[in-house]
C-alpha cells in the first residue's frame, strides 16, 4: 500500500481554539518553536498528494504545552473522500508512546483509555479531537513543549497510508481525566 504524506501549513495552527487538555506532563529537551509567521518547510516527496486530494486532512491542530510527562494533541480530522476513513495509530518524534484515546465515564469519574478501533471519520465528514473527548495522547514525552512550538505527527490509516501534520504548542489548563491503562486497544 502506498503512503500518503500531508503537511498542514502553520497558519492553520494559529487558529486553534484554547480548550481543555488531559494529563500532566514530564520531559527534558525543548521542542523547537517556529516563527509565528512562517510555515514549516515541506519534506513530503514530490509524488505525495496535495492536501486537496489526500483522504484525510487535519485542521487547527494543537498540542498542550508541557514540561514533562504526558500531553495531548487536538484538532479536527476531515475526510475528503466518499468512503469512511479510519485512523488506527499515531506517532510523533516527541514520544515513543503515542495512543489514540477517548474519555469515558467510569464510576462518576472521567477516565482516558485507548480508543478501540481507532478514530472513524465518515465519508465527507469530520471527527473532532478535543479535551474531554477523543484525542492523541503522548506519554513519556521526551521534549519540553512551549507555546508556539511546532510538533510533528503522523497518523496511520487503516489502509496503511499515512498523513503527516504539525501541531502548535498552546498553554491550556487541562481537564482532570484519569488514565486507565489497558482500557481498550486499536
From TrEMBL:
Q: Report if keyword Magnesium is assigned.
A: no
N-terminal signal peptide: 1-28
Does this UniProt record's set of keywords contain Acetylation?
no
Q: Where is this region: Disordered?
A: 24-53
Keyword terms, alphabetized: Signal
InterPro entries hit by this protein: LpqE-like, Lxx211020-like, PCuAC_sf
* Name this protein carries in UniProt: Copper chaperone PCu(A)C
